[in-house]
Amino acid sequence: MTAAILLTREGRRVTLFERGERLGRKLSASGNGKGNVTNVHMGPEHYFSDDREKVARALSRFSNCDTVRFLEEIGGIFLPDARGRVYPASRQASAVTDLLRGEIARLGVEVKLNAQVTKLWHDGQFQIVSGGQTFGADRVILAAGGKAAPNFGTDGSAFALAEGFGHTVLPCSPVLVQLRCEPARVKGLKGIRVDGGLRVLRWGEEQFSVRGDVLFTESGVSGDAVFRASSYATKGDLLLIDFLPDVEENKLKEALKRHTGVEKLLCVVNNGLGRALFSRAKDEEELVRLLKAFPLEVTGTLGFAYAQATRGGVPLGETDENLQSLKQSGLFFAGEMLNVDGECGGYNLQWAFTSAHLAAEGALK
After folding, report:
1. Cβ-based neighbours of 124, under 8 Å, separated by 6 or more
2. pLDDT (tens digit, 0 to 9) for every residue of the chain, 365 residues total?
3. What is the b/e burial string over 77-115, where b = at least 16 CB atoms within 10 angstroms of the residue's CB?
4. What pairs with residue 205 in β-bridges?
5. At what angle do helices 52-61 and 347-364 cross, to 10 degrees?
6. 319 in the same domain as 292
7. Is 284 found in the same domain as 167?
8. Residue 236 and residue 171 in one domain
9. With contact defined as beta carbons under 8 Å apart, do 37 and 86 qualify?
10. Do 341 and 192 belong to one domain?
11. Which of 276, 301, 326 represents a domain boundary (last residue)?
């Protein structure tokens, strides 16, 4: 949608092929429905890719400030929260979608809905097959998403269009997703939510640590801290949860001495959590360990159906600085088609806006 707006403003005739019934349905669900479009704390260190330096150069050409400026030019006010996540002042992701849809309508962009592209080739110009019809084009931007949230149409089938031009597609995996753990380890904890510290360890070495929301589920853990940690965790890693990150171990030990039995955990942690931990600890020393470093082994994720983003796709190394294919002139990529994924907090949408601007700029050249 962003690329279509930019190209049409420059006088180009653009046709936008949308697989679904409406434009931007996935955007309307972003940021937990609140529309986290970017982040104040922007930089390549928040991204995973085969070419992080190219990500850095891209962000320097179209930054978080540029994203906010672009969106505010077409309407609305966008403000950061305490963690730097930038939202529309209305806190409605659907309103961001409506802004883009409105600008597309105002500019007269041709939009084809329920129009999945099934074939794409080049024989002097691009030939696009959708709904049994063939359309010609001088330039093509593939912005069909990855494999996350397939209920919105992003099932990964568009990668075949890139492969048709000789592109590699790196293996895809879900990120920003709930983590699975051994059911026995989380038994009796379902529904308990804590503001805790979360560490990811691999072979004893810390990969990531974060403070935030941890929610126990039937199959593992969810919550904001878990989504953020999922970018760094893989099967076999160890999660350590600190239920009392603001309490020193010595102070905790003193508090536990004042009562006997499970009552020693009253006003220390959630009662349900306290009972579960007390029943697992053979002595007070182990109870302290469970409170400060509750271990869970990662056995997997809930998969693409529950993921917010995709890791993998077309390598950045197979594109130029404007994200044009090195295999086929005039073919560009944007968003999750490329092997770039960001941490939780507006980073993936920033990449969507940045890559759309670079691709549009390249197409104009």
Report:
1. none
2. 999 999 999 999 999 999 999 999 999 999 889 999 999 999 999 999 999 999 999 999 999 999 999 999 999 999 999 999 999 999 999 999 999 999 999 999 999 999 999 999 999 999 999 999 999 999 999 999 999 999 999 999 999 999 999 999 999 999 999 999 999 999 999 999 999 999 999 999 999 999 999 999 999 999 999 999 999 999 999 999 999 999 999 999 999 988 888 899 999 999 999 999 999 998 999 999 999 999 999 999 999 999 999 999 999 999 999 999 999 999 999 999 999 999 999 999 999 999 999 999 999 99
3. ebebeeeebbbbeeebbbbbbbbbbebbeeeebebbeeb
4. 202
5. 70
6. no
7. no
8. no
9. yes
10. no
11. 301
- One domain for residues 94 and 40: yes
User: Domain range for residue 237?
Assistant: 179-301
Do 265 and 334 lie in a common domain? no
Is residue 206 located within the same domain as residue 227? yes
Domain count, the chain: 2
What pTM was computed for the model? 0.92
